[in-house]
Write a structure and sequence with these properties.
This protein has about 120 residues and is mainly α. It has five helices and no strands. It has one domain. Helices cover about 70% and strands about 0% of the residues.
Length: about 120
Amino acid sequence: MNEKLRDAQRDIAQKLGIGDAPTPEQAGLISKMNETLLQKVFYLTMEKLSEEDRDILLEKIEDDKTSEEDVTAFLQSVIADYDQFVEKIVEEFFVEMNDFIGLSDAGVDVTAGQSSS
């Protein structure tokens, strides 16, 4: 899994300001946000791949012997600047969450690391 994506999953609670001992409801919300983020990365990644590369990726995912690192290495080999691609998805996700629940109202800088292009 991309390191930026892994960091984002760990930081969702902190970005929401609920990182210190979440209640079951908070844990559920964080879990759903993680799931949504992973689905978005997967969907947008699949869109970028050729049909042949999609088939290869799905074979790798279904193969119990394939590690996350192998999958990431494959994606890095077929998608130019894959790490930056994922980073942009993560940043956009937090901007969308800000629009939806007002993360910036809680003092979170959701635009950190974004370019102005």
